[in-house]
Amino acid sequence: MTTRHRSLAVNLIRATAIATALLMVTILTVNRSQAAFTATTSNTASSFVTGTVVLTDDDLGVAMFSATGMTPGNPLVECITVTYSGNQLPAPVRLFGTTTGTLDTYLDTTIEVGTGGSFGDCTGFTPTSTLFTNTLENFSTTHTDWATGLATFSAATNPTSRTFRVTVDVQNNALAQGLTSTADFIFETQA
Asked: Phi/psi at 42 (nearest 5 deg)?
């Protein structure tokens, strides 16, 4: 074996010895570092359930108004009861709407909130406040979504119901003749 080969062999043996020594020190350090006393605690079985917001009305899928042949001075009056029955309280309920057509400009509209009465029968309705008085067009352009909706009531208990009386009368204006409009009244709550 040449001197050069011997020198390489010695260096290889030294490197192997150093690596083995480092490995042994690491193993001993890890084994000696483990504590003699240990303790743990945990919080287990956490659960998560979402809340509910439930808003219904008593219209049974029927339009509040289906009027033909309207004339000035003969207002249409309809009621609808809206009920909140979710478990997120308090629950603010807002009202907004949309219209299409050209008659809405000439439809004077009043929206009241109160108690008593029901869909298609305002008998016993007692208003607690008037929410809106203007044209149906103004209602649908001013109150277009949740952010701009009319604050109607805030449910503090489950269930909470309110009845709304909507009165619509065509203005005494010759320009209103022969016009039509459709309207959606939308009640919404958010949590």
From this structure: -150, 160
